[in-house]
Design a protein that fits this description.
The structure holds two protein chains of two kinds. By secondary structure, chain A is mainly alpha-helical. Chain A has one domain. Chain A contains eight helices and no strands. By secondary structure, chain B is mainly α. Chain B has one domain. The longest helix of chain B is centred in the middle third of the chain and has 30 residues. Chain B starts with a helix and ends with a helix. The relative contact order of chain B is 0.15. The mean pLDDT of chain B is 91. The chains are: A mainly alpha, B mainly alpha. At the A-B interface, helix 5 and helix 6 of A face helix 7, helix 8 and helix 9 of B.
Chain lengths: 256, 222
C-alpha cells in the first residue's frame, strides 16, 4: 500500500543524523508559535475575559493551571508511547524522545500543583486538600521523578533507555488504577466537601483563552523537546563523523 | 515447567531459612515502626484505634520495601541470575517462583505478626480477620510490583532510595484498599468491596508483573 520511497521519506527521520537538522529547523517555528499564542492567551485571560461571578479575579489562574494540568497528563502518555515504540522497534530516537519529554512533563505537573495551591487558598481556604485530583496529580509528579531519576542513575545509555521505557510503561498501566483508587479513597473518607467542578456555563472568552493557552503549552513542549532531543543526540553520537562535521560548521558560524 | 518452579522456590526458601536473621530483622523493623506511632501521636486509645489500619499497612509496606533489594541482589552478585536467564525455561516462571519465595519468607511473617500488633493499637477485634486477609492479599502485590523495581535498579548506586522512589507511587492503590478494608470493617460498612478489589489487583499483578520483571532483568544484566 505504501510505495517504498514514500515510507522511506517518513521513517528516515528516525535516524538521529536525519532528525537532527529537521529538529533544528522546526524548533524555532514551534517556539515562535508558543510565544505568540502565549501572549495572546494571557491577554485574553487577564484582560478580555470577564470577572467570575462567584470567585472574582482569582479564577484567572485557570488560564495557566488547566493547560499545565492537561499537558502534564498528556506528556506522560506520549512518553509511554515513545517508550513502547522504542522497545518494539528498537529505535534510539524513540528513547531519546521519551527522555526529552520527561522534564517538561514534570515541570507542567509542578506548575499545575503550584498554581492549584495558589488558587485553593483564597477559594477553599487551604493550600492543599487531599482531593482525588490533587492527589493523583501529586503521584504523577512522583512517577515523573522516578523515571527521571532512574534514567539518570544508569550510566550505560542502552540500559538507561530500556529500563526507563519499562518503568514508563508500568507507570502508564498504573495511572488509571491510581486515579480511580484515589478517587474512591477520597469519596469513602469524606463527602465531597470541596468540589472542583467548575461553574456549568463558561463565558466564551474564558474558554477561548484557555484553549489558546493549551495550544501554546503544546507548542512550547514540542519546541523544548526538539531542542533537548538535539542536544541528547549530539551527546550520544559525539564519536560519529557527522556530529564532528556539524560541530565544525556551527563553530564557523553556520547553521546545521 | 512445574519442576523448575518448584526447584527455584525450594532453593530460595532454603536460602531464606539459612539466612534467618534477615527475615527476623524485617519483622523487627515492622514491629518497631508500629510501636513508634504511639510515641509520636500520643497514647490516646481512641486516636490509636482510628489510625491503626493505616499505621499497620504503612509499616507493612515499608518493611516490604526495605527487604526488596534482597530479592535479586545476591543472585546478581554470584552469577546465579545470569545462569537462570541463560536457561531455556521461561523467565517469567522462575521470576514468579522467586517472588513467591520472597513473599513466603518476608510477607507471610508480617501477616502473621500483624494481629498481635493490632491489639497494641487497640484495633477492634472483629476487624482482625479482615486485617489478616487484606495483608495476605495485598503484600503479594507489593512483592510483585516491587520485583519489577528491584530488577530495574539492580546493581545501581543508591539503588535503595531509587527503588523507593520508583515503587512507592505504585503501592498507593494497594495501601488505599488494604487500609480501607480494615477501616470499613471496623466502622461496620463491610470490607467485601475492598477485598475483592485487592484480589483483582493481585490477579492482575500476577498476570503482568512476572513478564515485566523478566524483561527488566534481561535489561539490567545485558
Amino acid at each position: 500500500m505504501n510505495s517504498p520511497e514514500r515510507s522511506r521519506s517518513i521513517f528516515r527521520f528516525a535516524a538521529p543524523h536525519n532528525f537532527y537538522p529537521l529538529a533544528g529547523r522546526l524548533a524555532p517555528c514551534f517556539a515562535a508559535a508558543a510565544l505568540v499564542l502565549g501572549v495572546v492567551g494571557l491577554w485574553l485571560g487577564f484582560f478580555v475575559a470577564p470577572t467570575d461571578a462567584t470567585q472574582g479575579e482569582v479564577y484567572r489562574v485557570i488560564f495557566i493551571h488547566v493547560p499545565a494540568a492537561w499537558m502534564s497528563m498528556f506528556v506522560y502518555l506520549v512518553m509511554a508511547f515513545w517508550s513502547a515504540v522504542g522497545l518494539v522497534m528498537n529505535t534510539r530516537l524513540s528513547f531519546i524522545m521519551s527522555q526529552a519529554l520527561a522534564p517538561t512533563g514534570a515541570m507542567f505537573c509542578f506548575i499545575a500543583l503550584w498554581t492549584g495551591a495558589l488558587w485553593g487558598k483564597p477559594t477553599w481556604g487551604a493550600y492543599w486538600v487531599w482531593d482525588a485530583r490533587l492527589t493523583s496529580q501529586l503521584l504523577l509528579l512522583f512517577l515523573y521523578f522516578g523515571f527521571i531519576a532512574l534514567t539518570r542513575a544508569i550510566e550505560d545509555p542502552r540500559r538507561a533507555d530500556r529500563a526507563g521505557a519499562i518503568i514508563a510503561l508500568v507507570g502508564a498501566v498504573n495511572v488509571p488504577i491510581i486515579y480511580f483508587s484515589v478517587q474512591w479513597w477520597n469519596t469513602l473518607h469524606q463527602g465531597a466537601s470541596v468540589s472542583l467542578n467548575k461553574a456549568p456555563s463558561m463565558a466564551a472568552t474564558m474558554l477561548l483563552g484557555m484553549l489558546v493557552m493549551a495550544i501554546a503549552a503544546w507548542m512550547y513542549t514540542i519546541a523544548v523537546v526538539l531542542w533537548r532531543a538535539r542536544s541528547m543526540i549530539l551527546e550520544r553520537e559525539r564519536h560519529t563523523e557527522w556530529v564532528g562535521a556539524v560541530l565544525e560548521r556551527e563553530a564557523q558560524g553556520g547553521r546545521a | 515447567m512445574l519442576s523448575t518452579f518448584l526447584a527455584v522456590l525450594r532453593r530460595d526458601l532454603l536460602l531464606a531459612w539459612r539466612g534467618r536473621a534477615d527475615v527476623l530483622v524485617t519483622l523487627a523493623f515492622f514491629v518497631i515502626v508500629v510501636c513508634l506511632f504511639p510515641f509520636g501521636v500520643g497514647a490516646e486509645p481512641n486516636q490509636l484505634r482510628a489510625i491503626a489500619p493505616g499505621v499497620l499497612w504503612v509499616a507493612a509496606l515499608l518493611a516490604c520495601l526495605l527487604s526488596l533489594h534482597r530479592l535479586f541482589a545476591q543472585d546478581h552478585a554470584d552469577g546465579t541470575l545470569e545462569q537462570l536467564l541463560l536457561s531455556s525455561e521461561p523467565a517469567a516462571l522462575w521470576v514468579a517462583a522467586k517472588v513467591l519465595a520472597f513473599w513466603l519468607s518476608t510477607g507471610l511473617p508480617v501477616v502473621a505478626v500483624a494481629p498481635g500488633l493490632a491489639l497494641l493499637l487497640d484495633l477492634e477485634q472483629g476487624a482482625l480477620p479482615v486485617l489478616v486477609l487484606s495483608l495476605a492479599l495485598g503484600t503479594p502485590i507489593l512483592g510483585l510490583l516491587g520485583a519489577v523495581g528491584a530488577a530495574l535498579t539492580l546493581g545501581l548506586r543508591g539503588g535503595g532510595m531509587l527503588l523507593a522512589l520508583l515503587v512507592l507511587p505504585l503501592f498507593v492503590p494497594v495501601l488505599i484498599f488494604g487500609a480501607g478494608a480494615v477501616e470499613a470493617e471496623a466502622s461496620g460498612t463491610g470490607a467485601a468491596a475492598h477485598l475483592l478489589l485487592l484480589g483483582g489487583g493481585l490477579a492482575g499483578a500476577l498476570a503482568l508483573a512476572p513478564w515485566a520483571c523478566a524483561a527488566a532483568l534481561r535489561i539490567s544484566t545485558d
